[in-house]
Design a protein that fits this description.
Length: 160
C-alpha cells in the first residue's frame, strides 16, 4: 500500500523523532547549498541539485507538519510572491533604485530602530558608512491583517 506524501512525512516524524528530523532538515539544506556553490564555480551538477532540492522539499514538508504551520507558511508565501511580483514590475518600469532596496530590506532591531538609526545614535550620522554598503542581514517585518508583527505564529507576549 502506497502512503500519501503527508502520511509518509508524518510517519518519518513518528519513527525518527523531532530532534533527528530537524537535524536532517539542516543537513539537507546544507547539501543543497554545497551543490549550488559547486555549480556557481562552474561544475555541471544539475542532477545533484535536483536531488538535493527534492530532499529539502521533503524535509520542509516534515517541518510544516512538525510545527503545524501550513496556514502561516501559505500566508507568508503568498505575501512574498506578491512582493516579488511588485519588485519585478518596478524593475520592468525602471523604478528600481539602490536606496529603495535598502529601504525594503532595512534591518530591524528589537527596539524598533533599524541598524542605521542605531549606529547613528542621537547625532544622526552613521560613522561606519554601513548604510552605503547596505547595512547587514536583511530582516523584514511582515504585517498580516489579524496577526502580530512579523511572527503570525507567536503569541503577543513572545514577541517582546
Amino acid at each position: 500500500m502506497m502512503l500519501h506524501d503527508n502520511a509518509i512525512c508524518q510517519a518519518a516524524l513518528e519513527t525518527f523523532g523531532k530532534e533527528l528530523q530537524v537535524t536532517m532538515a539542516i543537513e539537507e539544506m546544507s547539501e543543497l547549498t554545497k551543490e549550488l556553490c559547486k555549480n556557481g564555480r562552474g561544475q555541471e551538477n544539475t542532477t545533484h541539485i535536483a536531488e538535493e532540492i527534492a530532499d529539502v522539499q521533503i524535509m520542509l514538508q516534515q517541518l510544516v507538519i512538525l510545527f503545524d504551520c501550513k496556514e502561516t507558511v501559505d500566508k507568508y508565501r503568498q505575501y512574498k510572491l506578491e512582493r516579488l511580483a511588485g519588485r519585478i514590475e518596478e524593475v520592468a518600469n525602471g523604478d528600481w533604485r539602490r536606496d529603495h532596496v535598502r529601504a525594503v530590506l532595512q534591518p530591524r532591531r528589537r527596539d524598533g530602530r533599524d541598524q542605521e538609526q542605531a549606529r547613528a545614535g542621537l547625532g544622526g550620522v552613521d560613522p561606519s558608512g554601513a548604510a552605503l554598503r547596505g547595512g547587514g542581514a536583511a530582516h523584514e517585518k511582515l504585517c498580516i491583517p489579524g496577526e502580530h508583527m512579523a511572527h503570525p505564529g507567536r503569541k503577543k507576549d513572545d514577541a517582546e
